[in-house]
Design a protein that fits this description.
This protein is α/β, with parallel strands linked by helices. It is built from 10 helices and 11 strands. The longest helix is centred in the N-terminal third of the chain and has 20 residues, at 8-27. Bound molecules: NADP nicotinamide-adenine-dinucleotide phosphate (NAP). NADP nicotinamide-adenine-dinucleotide phosphate binds at residues 141, 164-167, 169-171, 188-191, 195, 208-211, 214, 229-232, 262-263, 266.
Length: 283
């Protein structure tokens, strides 16, 4: 392997140490950042995510509350809880773990979260503010990608970034954040012809597709930075990304591993957003 590894875990630990310092400072002014997490139903993966979020709160000295609701909870009951949390001073951030059971409309739930507590960054007003470049709570995984680039000295400014994937939670927002950081951005998706050729033009490739090892070594320009957002479970139970790591790491200049690359950044950026929301209250 010739590429340098972008060590997401290490960078995430650095950011968490910075957050811890800020929390200690805030305490003297009587404010403790608080996060409320809502889980509806018993999806096993969601349960793990929620546990990890509560653990991160505990490690960083945040106040946290986890609301575990049954899969039969009605949309009205969920919206009522969100309304209460919107008004609760000890809670600066509200996160509803997705996906929700089919009978609950995701959009209605996201729209109900107060914008200043929208630590997932999915509320249409948060998204709009991000697009126009105003101050906003940014979506966590895309913001984590930008941190990884900046903290490894790979500023996107003036670079050609190719993003593969255009979902609302990763591809689209990461493209907009790269644009905000002055990259020239190409967004690719399932209808993009000649994907390998487009990818080969990139100084920075961000893969957020959900297809194991889609991005091959010959899709990468020598020396390029490769950020692999994908998390895919292989039949043998191992995790792998959307990039063929063995091949791409022989060509790239920098590359994220899976696991241990983008993954650890997501919860850390959630904590950073909650701190930011609490600081907003401290003004
Ligand atoms: P998604 O909603 O399924 O979107 C996938 C995107 O990839 C779509 O825009 C789709 O194009 C495009 N696509 C699918 N197959 C393609 C192909 N063969 N060639 C080119 N484009 C293709 O997925 P997502 O939620 O963005 O997640 C993407 C990956 O990131 C998944 O592996 C997910 O597990 C992972 N993820 C990781 C984190 C983390 O914290 N590390 C967070 C979120 C997601 P169309 O729009 O044309 O359908």
């Amino acid at each position: 392997m010739s590429a340098k590894l972008i060590e997401g875990k290490k960078i995430s630990d650095q950011i968490r140490a910075e957050i811890k310092d800020e929390v200690a400072k805030l305490k003297s002014s009587g404010i403790q950042p608080g996060l409320a997490v809502i889980l509806v139903g018993e999806d096993p993966a969601s349960q793990v995510y929620v546990r990890n979020k509560a653990k991160a709160c505990e490690d960083l000295g945040f106040y946290s509350e986890v609301h575990r609701l049954s899969a039969e909870t009605s949309q009205a009951e969920l919206l009522e809880l969100i309304g209460r949390l919107n008004a609760q001073d000890s809670v600066h951030g509200i996160l509803v773990q997705l996906p929700l059971p089919k009978h609950i409309e995701e959009k209605a739930v996201i729209d109900a979260i107060a914008v200043e507590k929208d630590v997932d960054g999915f509320h249409p007003v948060s998204v709009g503010n991000m697009v126009i470049g105003d101050d906003a709570l940014l979506p966590c995984t895309p913001a984590g990608v930008i941190e990884l680039l900046k903290r490894t000295g790979n500023s996107p400014a003036g670079k050609h970034a190719v993003v593969i994937g255009r979902s609302n939670i990763v591809g689209k927002p990461v493209s907009l954040l790269l644009l905000r950081e002055h990259a020239t951005v190409t967004i690719c998706h399932s209808r993009t012809p000649n994907l390998a050729e487009v990818s080969r033009q990139a100084d920075i490739v961000v893969a957020a597709v959900g297809v194991p090892k889609l991005v091959k070594g010959d899709w990468i320009k020598p020396g390029a930075v490769v950020i692999d957002v994908g998390v895919n479970r292989l039949p043998d139970g191992k995790l792998c990304g959307d990039v063929d790591f063995a091949e791409a790491s022989e060509v790239a200049g920098w590359i994220t591993p899976v696991p241990g690359g983008v993954g650890p950044m997501t919860i850390t950026m959630l904590m950073k957003n909650t701190l930011k929301a609490a600081l907003g209250k401290a003004k």
